[in-house]
Amino acid sequence: MGNTPQTHIVPMNSSPTSVLLLPTLDHLKRVDANGGGCMVFDSSHLRKQARIPSQFIWPRNDRLSAIDELEAPIIDLQGFLHGDETSTLDAAKLVASACTRHGFFQVTNHGVDTSLVREAFACLDEFFLLPLNEKLRARRKPGSMWGYAGAHTDRFSSNLPWKETLSFGFDDAGDKAVVADYMKSQLGNEFEQMGLIYQKYCEAMRKLSAAIVDLLAISMGVDPSYFRDFFDESSSIMRCNYYPSCQEPELALGTGPHTDPTSLTILQQDQVGGLEVFTDGQWKMISPVRDALVINIGDTFMALSNGMYKSCLHRAVVNSHRERRSLAFFLCPRSDKMVRPPVELCKTDRQYPNFTWAQLLQFTQQHYRADVRTLQAFTQWLGSNPIC
Ligand SMILES: O=C(O)CCC(=O)C(=O)O
């Protein structure tokens, strides 16, 4: 039998840690109501120390090494995107087999311009290489999903991820320049160009996500119009991940074990490697494939598929010699959309109750740190917080 990762069923500790990792930046020190300092993650400072702080050391079970590669198909989308029937059926079969087992697959010839991906990575480098006090101008505000965060110290006080993130929203129906405006408002006019590139990147991801949702529908024998309606006016989240190298990578994690509460994730990882998936009782690697995007099913889609397609535990490990970067686009429905499987998938008992994306988001932001049990815990929570 394989090892089971430890689940974090404890309610989320949403209070920031009182440990200040960067005592030299006194002007950044924010004293909270209890008199504690708010921690700032400065990897250039931390990397000079022999040991990593204890807040970054994960439980042994979460750190067990991956040995094998995940069996995840690499699906060429060219034929499907050009309406070729045979290619579509072949692609749909591969998708069905991957998603019923673990929910991960990779796609090539996906239509996203490689120069746009290069530009998005160049912007990521430009942003994360800024001095810390400049990045902190875009610091995530309490209760917001958007902004810059170092090691999620604003939300958690232990099992901290060894990474920095920059997150922002992207709406189908909203203001066309939402990303550029956000960058400009947080960081100044000189960041408008970066915002325009991320805006274009999000538009490309949204277009691809629509195609993949169609392919998921075909693979499940569901009328594609059901999911198209469900994701109409979607409101997605984009996250840039920057994982500095770490002097004790065997003790730390870049992203801890979690499932994505969102619907569908499109991940562009660089060539360093570090993404791992827990399946069949073991952690398995998803090594980078040049110009391929990693797709995975999130909790919302698992509920929408009545449990047929899996949202699987994954994590990102770090290493001691090289920083790693990834760009994650999380497709989410409009917040008030009811998550209810189509009739074709309700021939067996319903696995999850109806809920709105807003409710699941509230649960994972305010009450629960996402893990392998998110949907079960959410279902219990819904019992005492029913939809009005
Ligand atoms: O960077 C990666 O490979 C994974 C990132 C991830 O899981 C996340 O951002 O939720």
TrEMBL record:
Keyword Phosphoprotein: no
Record field: catalytic activity: gibberellin A53 + 2 2-oxoglutarate + 3 O2 + H(+) = gibberellin A20 + 2 succinate + 3 CO2 + 2 H2O; gibberellin A12 + 2 2-oxoglutarate + 3 O2 + H(+) = gibberellin A9 + 2 succinate + 3 CO2 + 2 H2O
Single GO biological process annotation from the record: gibberellin metabolic process
Cofactors named for this entry: L-ascorbate
Gene3D superfamilies membership: B-lactam Antibiotic, Isopenicillin N Synthase, Chain (2.60.120.330)
Keyword Chaperone attributed: no
Stretches assigned to the Fe2OG dioxygenase domain: 234-333
GO molecular function, one term: metal ion binding
Family: Belongs to the iron/ascorbate-dependent oxidoreductase family.
Protein name listed in UniProt: Gibberellin 20-oxidase
Lineage: Eukaryota, Viridiplantae, Streptophyta, Embryophyta, Tracheophyta
